[in-house]
TrEMBL record:
Species in which this protein is naturally found: Andreprevotia lacus DSM 23236
UniProt superkingdom: Bacteria
Protein name per its UniProtKB record: UPF0145 protein SAMN02745857_01457
Family in the record: Belongs to the UPF0145 family.
Pfam families given in the database record: YbjQ_1
SUPFAM superfamilies in UniProt: YbjQ-like (SSF117782)
Entries under InterPro entries matching the protein: UPF0145_dom_sf, UPF0145_YbjQ-like
Length: 111
């Protein structure tokens, strides 16, 4: 699914929603490794952006996003509206990242 067919808005400019396929989601649960925790801890001493955690979070978001897109494609959708992210710490060092939205089928609007 093309990135331009996924939006946080409730409509997709230039397209008309034909079918509401339903809610789709991608869920990833990640934990920090011992090495990552060690280097992340060192970076907290220096302050600023903690790149090892930022990279871990970005990868988890990307994986959840891709799972959501696959879920939508498998259900016959060609677009997703109302896309959001959510994250919850399940236990210390273990985080769930959820990406969800409404899968729809769209057609270009007639001019």
């Amino acid at each position: 699914m093309e990135a331009r067919m996924i939006t946080t808005a409730l409509e997709l400019p230039g397209y008309r929603i034909v079918t509401n396929v339903g809610v789709v989601r991608g869920i990833v649960v990640r934990s920090r490794s011992i090495v990552g925790s060690f280097f992340g801890g060192l970076q907290t001493l220096l302050g600023g952006n903690i790149t090892i955690y930022a990279n871990l979070c970005e990868q988890a978001r990307l994986d959840a996003y891709e799972l959501m897109c696959r879920h939508a494609r498998n259900n016959g959708a060609n677009a997703i509206v109302g896309m959001r992210y959510d994250a919850t710490e399940i236990m210390p060092g273990v985080t769930e990242v959820l990406c969800y939205g409404t899968a729809v089928t769209v057609k270009p609007e007639q001019a």
